[in-house]
Design goal:
Bound molecules: 4'-deoxy-4'-aminopyridoxal-5'-phosphate
Shape: globular
Oligomer: single chain
CATH architecture of the largest domain: 3-Layer(aba) Sandwich
Number of strands: 17
């Protein structure tokens, strides 16, 4: 039987060297995981080993190191592709992260196809990186970006979605998990309904890939965007998965080396997948580090990990429920371990600063989701977001610190 109890979070915590430090003289409680996760030693060492032993440019070299670097880079692609169950490694494009992946699809898939009057449905809770690229494509083509309304519990209004979905809908682009509120959206249902209406779906997996099993084939999704740094890998590297026929039908993204087959002043031809979308020297060390993060995650019982994270959320919600003046924002029935909240009488930034002085790292503000904040009539929240290495002691310390914050308000 899988349970939270079978997951040893303290042992996992020991895998992450950064967490051993003190801040402001206090042991660190790191609860800013939705912004970026910490990195296990295995990832740090993989990057170090790459630079100490392997570093070379990929794909074109005639020497041993070039071979090693190419092998390491392509092994990393296969690992990351396998992690999301991509049918082939070449359907996994390495990008800088979720933002670049979404921009790639907006510019290379959407923009050439959109016509005046076409609609792109986006989530009312969306991160700005899943709004603005569509607005840019819409502005250039006369299409419209239409938000899917959000309920009082921070869930997508599925009746409204059904009504908005129609013959004008070309694309549905939404997050699997809301970074601002933690809500898990019913993406499988949304994808099948969107497909039935003839629309293509991009899922922003930035907040889901580290916490939930994301299987692109089971979901039957057209595009999946994600960031390495939110799944225990390095910054500056991420992925775009795409359905093969869609990727192959798209013009290249940036022009340069790596992405061509032949170049002449008369006629240039482009490489096939995935290189067509990977102009220039890639972030080789980043890819290697992301591959190591996938290996690390593979060594973990994912069901027990998810049960542990759910138990942390339940623990935090119980303590929040007993705290006067604690206003939880976002009460979705299905959510990851994210607590977005306000304290009566306390500006989120002040709460964040007072928590920091006690060693507790949280994020405050609009979380790059201003329309979501507007929906709830607030400028921002305090957000505590948990990861696999957080412990029940972290939850206790967080609430002890919050009680102290309240004495200053
Ligand atoms: N989408 C969501 C839901 C996010 O949480 C984030 C990062 N906060 C992004 C997109 C953007 O990711 P990145 O900055 O890594 O490109």
């Amino acid at each position: 039987m899988t349970s939270a109890a079978s997951f040893d979070a303290a042992a996992r915590r020991a895998d992450f060297p950064l967490l051993a430090q003190t801040v402001h003289g206090q042991p660190l409680v790191y609860l800013d995981n939705a912004a970026t996760t910490q990195k296990p030693l295995a990832v740090i060492e993989a990057v170090e080993d790459y630079y100490k032993r392997i570093n070379s440019n990929v794909h074109r070299g005639a020497h041993l190191l070039a071979d090693r670097a190419t092998t390491a880079f392509e092994e990393a692609r296969a690992l990351v592709a396998g992690y999301i169950n991509s049918p082939t490694p070449e359907q996994l494009i390495f990008t800088r992260g979720t933002t670049e992946s979404i921009n790639l699809v907006a510019q290379c898939y959407a923009r050439p196809r959109l016509q005046p009057g076409d609609e792109i449905l986006v989530s009312g809770l969306a991160h700005h990186s899943n709004i603005v690229p569509w607005q840019m494509a819409a502005e250039a083509t006369g299409a419209r970006v239409v938000p899917i309304p959000v309920t009082a519990t921070a869930e997508l209004d599925m009746d409204a979605f059904g009504q908005l979905l129609g013959p004008r809908t070309r694309l549905v682009a939404l997050e699997h998990v809301s970074n601002a509120m933690g809500s898990i959206h019913p993406v499988a249902d949304i994808i099948s309904r969107a497909h039935a209406a003839g629309a293509v779906v991009l899922i922003d997996g930035a907040q889901s890939v580290a916490h939930l099993e994301v299987d692109v084939q089971a979901l039957d999704v057209d595009f999946l965007a994600f960031s390495g740094h939110k799944m225990y890998g390095p910054t500056g590297i991420g992925g775009l998965f795409g359905r093969r026929e869609l990727l192959e039908s798209m013009p290249p993204w940036q022009g340069g080396g790596e992405m061509i087959e032949t170049v002449s002043f008369e006629r240039t031809t482009y490489a096939g997948l995935p290189y067509r979308f990977e102009a220039g020297t890639p972030h080789i060390a980043g890819a290697v580090g992301l591959g190591a993060a996938v290996r690390y995650l593979r060594g973990i019982d994912r069901k027990a990990m998810a049960a542990h994270e759910d138990a942390l959320l339940a623990h935090a919600l119980e303590l929040a429920g007993a705290m006067p003046g604690f206003r939880l924002v976002g009460r979705a029935a299905h959510k990851v371990a994210v607590l977005s909240f306000l304290l009566d009488g306390g500006h989120p930034h002040d709460v964040g600063t007072l928590l920091d002085r006690q060693g507790v790292a949280v994020r405050t503000g609009h979380h790059c989701a201003q329309p979501a904040m507007a929906r709830f009539g607030i400028p921002g929240t305090v957000r505590a977001s948990f990861a696999l290495y957080n412990t029940h002691e972290d939850v206790e310390r967080f609430f002890t610190a919050l009680r102290k914050v309240q004495t200053f308000l």
